[in-house]
Specification:
- Helices cover about 5% and strands about 40% of the residues.
- The chain has two helices and 15 strands.
- The chain has helices at about 1-10, 140-150; strands at about 25-30, 35-45, 45-55, 60-70, 75-90, 100-105, 115-120, 125, 165, 195-205, 210-220, 230-235, 240-245, 250-255, 270.
- The chain is globular.
- The relative contact order is 0.10.
- The model is unreliable at about 1-15 (pLDDT under 50).
Length: about 280
């Protein structure tokens, strides 16, 4: 956190790129992660500021700001980017950051420009079907990321790497899946997935005998809607696995903490994607 604010204080802007949003009605959609985040400010005068930042725990990072205009209605948002301000922060925090200001158009600095507006009570989301990697090894988009968080019960309290405007009001209704385009609905579980532990194998790293993990085999597989994007946990919430491989009638995941015991979680223990 210190790193983020220290770097932020070093940024500079020219007068023509300073946008004072304090006196302009602004609707903010955002995602905030650890040393990374995304913010989209929609100004009431028709302009937008899209800011994407990423910092290293060891120092250094980058901040990309895209400016332009937008059009929005209750179903769709379209951004029309015009210019970019790209700031690179060196690992040595004593050095000044490098700022590059260019017209929009370079492929490596492009942003998502077409979004569907999705609402869940007072929460509003912006979803794009554009595929990227994010923090996953697999290509994914906003619909898939949202499905992951919804399937495991993290939404609406927490959200993944997609833009959302959240209120402090409690969500009391189920999410209306009809808002999601049909081609993405298969990623959403209509009912929680349940599976039981079928086998437990202790795995010892041959190069480090103190490095111990546990391979957990579950009795459900692809035909039961298990996929390698799911996280299943016990009812007490203290034991969970992320599914990493799936067969027709069984699936597998690993548990890495050494405090695991077969006595506490024996074969036959039930895990679910969501218990409530």
């Amino acid at each position: 956190m210190f790193l983020i604010f220290s770097c932020s204080n070093n940024k500079t802007k020219s007068n023509d790129e300073k946008i004072d949003i304090k006196n302009i009605d602004t609707l903010r959609y955002s995602y905030d992660g650890f040393n990374n985040g995304l913010r989209l400010d929609l100004l009431s005068d028709g302009r937008f500021i899209n800011e994407n930042y990423l910092f290293s725990c060891f120092g250094g990072g980058e901040r990309k700001k895209v400016f332009g205009t937008y059009k929005m209605d209750s179903l769709k948002l379209t951004l029309n980017p015009e210019r970019i301000e790209f700031i690179e922060y060196p690992e040595d925090m004593e050095l000044k950051p490098k700022t590059t200001k260019i017209k929009y158009g370079i492929d490596s600095l492009k942003i998502k420009t077409e979004f569907q507006v999705v609402q869940w009570e007072n929460n509003k989301y912006l979803f794009s079907d554009y595929f990227d990697f994010g923090w996953s090894l697999d290509k994914e988009n906003d619909y898939i990321r949202f499905a992951d968080y919804l399937n495991t019960g993290l939404e609406p309290e927490m959200n993944g790497m997609y833009l959302v405007n959240k209120t402090k009001d409690s969500i009391t209704s189920e999410f209306d899946l009809k808002q999601i385009p049909e081609k993405w609905q298969s990623y959403f579980l209509k009912e929680p997935v349940s599976a039981k532990i079928k086998n437990i194998t202790k795995v010892i790293d041959p190069n480090d005998e103190e490095n111990i993990s546990w391979q957990i085999e579950l009795d459900k597989g692809e035909k039961d809607r298990i996929n390698n994007r799911l996280t299943l946990e016990t009812q007490d919430g203290e034991f969970f696995i992320e599914v990493d491989s799936v067969l027709t009638n069984r699936s597998f995941g690993k548990y890495y903490l050494p405090d695991f015991t077969k006595e506490k979680y024996p074969i036959g223990t039930e895990l679910r994607t969501k218990w409530k």
